[in-house]
Specification:
Two copies of one chain form a homodimer. Chain A has 420 residues and is α/β, with parallel strands linked by helices. In chain A, 39% of the residues lie in helices and 25% in strands. In chain A, helix 2 runs parallel beside helix 6, helix 3 crosses helix 4 and helix 9 packs parallel to helix 14. About 2% of the residues of chain A have low confidence.
Chain lengths: 420, 420
């Protein structure tokens, strides 16, 4: 079944609001083995909506439309749908009752003549129940294409899609294909390297595809198997996933929706170790990411953001001599910060970062992007210099990622040991 | 000129990644008086790309395509473009040189035979310079429609659009309508309140429109005037902007692209005051946002993330008695933290946050979302309790926003004084 989505709204087409409905619909359908082929978005403009329905109708068995069903004058979807399909627009009694019932239920809404607009739908259409909002959805069949119209409010749309549209579609899929997928999340190598590592794993001719999605500074690889049933899909998918994981090794930090932050949090919980942070150029970003995770107070003792040399001396015990001889952006200073925060906080691990995020502050020997990361553990202190590219934001982001990846690798290495 | 965008990528069409390029392109074009009419997205799939180019080509004078120009096997845009326009795909020597130069410049990339794929473009096309990445863009004219092909990496695409595509389009626009807009950024009131404050300002019939875009926890109001020339557009726009700014008062923290963080940074620079932070539930997020801004080292002395009571005592001088009697989430503790960090760091202002971000840790007297914010200044220390709604992320985000807004309001109030 060829499915398209159509999102309607001026705010989408002028870049004021990012369209998230299209992606939500695609992901929910894909989980049921239904694939979206096209996402189209147009403004609140009748000719454009009519044109979009006609174009998508030619190449689709079903169109899922969101937006433009509200009570205000710029909501034009129902009228455009009636014109596009050569139907009259009528007041639907059941819809009118719904609009009135919901209006009186929802706060701040007054039943006014305007609201009848939301009860007007094309003839020969069926309502789609909207249990959480006033706008009625409807669906109709035109030239062999199912067209579903829903409001653009994401929370309302999701319920209508789940409870009405998807069940309707699934009943009409003649030969249902099963799609199963696994996503591997990767940090470290570049895209070309990942591509090379995964050469030969995808076999599109058998229904096994592979997609790489780069989201600076990490990426994800999704392996997707399409087959007649669950059993065949899994048989196709799982060996490929195993090979991919073996080849990627510890570049792969998690699967599915588990973030790097979740992964690191899980390892801290598992090992019962505690952590403190001393950040300079990352300015609290690492602490922010550690504490994004609920329950982080169990292993995160404290963080200090020591931007000034004075703070480095007072809070971390870095000496004036060291700052004089090596400077604040140096391996010596980063180690002293990591060991300092570990000592003063009494935590098992002390992680420190010192570098130049720019745009100012670089020199020929230490250009912008020079970052020292140091991890002080009970048995040793490891410090390394990195040279990152990009602007201030990018340097700070990749610094935090690299630091979190160090923690992950450290905890993984100690996986089999007891508390260090 | 009718303009469409086409975003290419399986990750977009299966809901794995939200397409932000379409909106970015639309907003950048709109700022130049060019309106996008359709956004289309399809997967990494040759027939779909070819079909999309054909469909959009019929209704557009220009198509701006992003994505699918990478080095890997699933990047199919160049080949699809060549087939859609009946051209051969050739290795473009200038593009090859570019790919090799950039590959050797960017770290971790090896010039391998694979890279030549990125130098293959359709015949009778012109390169679009990509100064920050390996993928070459190109443009061509087919059946009266300009087609621009750029990589999907947002940072690369934006530069290419700004420096090459937009100037190219502007030269070819016959009757240019001028669109001028001003965006006001607002923190504090809810959408309904803003809507009411701005009643009657928009006059669509004269070409003056108003859009509210809510981006939790702040929003922006864009006033947009469309006219035949700059003079008329400005005459329409500026009085409306003035009225809107008067009605919004100090809810409006900036205009245009100036963020809350920029605004606060500007005020610190202006006043020559220094700041230190003591964060508990916000976990470094405020420090991260302060240090996001280049040059923040001039006024930001230090930050501490004191998750544990021990850290609050050791680093901030909060007493055990206070923690015993009032608890760590209390007005007393927040004030002691603010005054403590101000005292130990020697900075002019000390800002502290203590609260319960959840999901655990709430009680009937202090439910999840209870947050104390305290600002210690030379002349006084102000502390307030907030009750925020939402999940852990939302509570932390609105806590940081509110704290930054406090700094903004404090610095504004002292606008006319000299150093306090």
């Amino acid at each position: 079944m060829k499915i398209s989505t159509l999102s309607i709204g001026d705010e989408l087409i002028c870049g004021q609001l990012t369209d998230t409905n299209a992606g939500t619909i695609a992901a929910m359908l894909l989980a049921e083995g239904l694939r979206v082929q096209r996402h189209l978005a147009v403004g609140d403009n009748e000719p454009d909506i009519i044109g979009a329905l006609a174009d998508l109708g030619r190449v689709s068995d079903a169109i899922i439309v969101t937006g433009g069903l509200g009570p205000t004058a710029d909501d034009l979807t129902s009228r455009a749908a009636s014109r596009a399909t050569g139907r009259r627009l009528i007041i639907h009694e059941e819809a009118r009752t719904h609009v009135r019932d919901m209006s009186s239920k929802l706060e701040n809404l007054i039943v006014c003549p305007l609201s009848d607009k939301q009860a007007m739908i094309p003839t020969k259409s069926s309502l789609i129940c909207n249990p959480t909002g006033t706008a009625c959805g409807f669906h109709l069949m035109h030239n062999g294409c199912f067209m579903f119209f829903m409001p653009g409010v994401p929370s309302e749309m999701v319920i209508m899609l789940r409870d009405s549209v998807i069940p309707f579609l699934l009943k009409r899929v003649s030969h249902k294909r099963v799609i199963r997928s696994v996503t591997l999340n990767i940090f470290g190598p570049c895209e070309a390297e990942v591509d090379e590592l995964l050469t030969g794993i995808a076999r599109a001719e058998h229904g096994l595809t592979l997609g790489i999605c780069v989201t600076f500074p990490w990426m994800s690889v999704t392996l997707r198997a399409e087959a007649d049933n669950d059993y065949s899909a899994n048989n196709l998918l799982m060996p490929a996933v195993q090979i991919a994981m073996e080849r990627l090794g510890d570049y792969c930090f998690s699967t599915g929706n588990i973030s790097m932050d979740d992964t690191v949090a899980g390892l801290f919980r598992k090992h019962g170790l505690t952590l403190s942070l001393a950040e300079s150029c990352s300015g609290g970003l690492i602490a922010k990411r550690i504490t994004d995770i609920p329950g982080s107070s169990n292993y995160f003792i404290e963080g200090v953001v020591t931007y000034s040399n004075d703070a480095k001396m007072r809070l971390l015990g870095v000496t004036a001599e060291l700052l004089d001889s090596s400077g604040s952006v140096s391996a010596e200073c980063a180690s002293a910060m990591a060991e300092g925060v570990r000592r003063t906080s009494g935590s098992d691990l002390g992680l420190a970062v010192s570098g130049i995020a720019g745009p100012e502050g670089g020199s020929s020997s230490k250009p912008v992007g020079t970052v020292y990361i140091s991890l002080a553990a009970p048995e040793s202190c490891r410090t390394e210099c990195f040279q990152f590219n990009g602007n201030r934001d990018a340097i700070r982001i990749i610094t935090a990622w690299t630091a979190l990846d160090w923690l992950r690798r450290y905890l993984l290495t100690n996986e089999n040991g007891s508390k260090i």
